Amino acid sequence: MFYISTIINLKSITMKNQTHNGWTNYPTWKVNLEMIDDLDTDHWTDFIEDNRGSDMLTYNLGQEIREYVEEELYSECVADSDLVYNFALSFIANVNWREIAEHVLDTYKENYWCDTCGTRFDERYMSNYCSSECEREYELLATHPKG
To answer: Measured between alpha carbons, how far is residue 91 from residues 12, 13, 26, 130, 133 in Å?
Structure first.
């Protein structure tokens, strides 16, 4: 019994210190790759916009993503086996939900928020800025000599 618990403890320590493809660990990378990356960032629009400005946005989005993943796993696994579902839950226990949330937010901001002031784009305005004033301000700051 002591031997098995020692192996489990060593494995968990190893898993915590191992990065994978630039992500915290393999479970975080795999869940993001297989379940989150393929979703359009529009999937999270209502949640992000409703919680915009909150100090807890990243954390809360991470929890929202975790709930989404758990629901998807439940719908896929329970019909087959509770055992498979429990293995899946065990796997996602090591996921860094905050890191995935940061990735989703970065992508969302890049696609929908003005680079200068952070205002949400009007979908009709095809630029990285919400207005011509913000675009001019950005260009002015970008070309202004440093120092």
So the answer is: 12, 15, 10, 41, 48
Contacts of 111 (CB under 8 A, 6+ apart): 41
For residue range 24-75, what is the model confidence (pLDDT) as tens digits? Answer: 999 999 999 999 988 877 788 889 989 988 899 999 999 999 999 999 999 8
Q: What is the pLDDT of residue 146?
A: 65
pLDDT of amino acid 80: 61
The whole-model pTM stands at 0.73
- The tokens for 14 are 């190893």
Residue with tokens 């297989």: 34
48 CB contacts (<8 Å, ≥6 apart)? 57, 61, 105, 108
Cβ 65 vs Cβ 73: under 8 Å? no
Which residue from 86, 18, 91, 14 is spatially nearest to 6, judged by alpha carbons? 14
Structural contact between residues 119 and 138, judged by C-beta atoms closer than 8 angstroms:
no
Partners of residue 20 on adjacent β-strands: 23
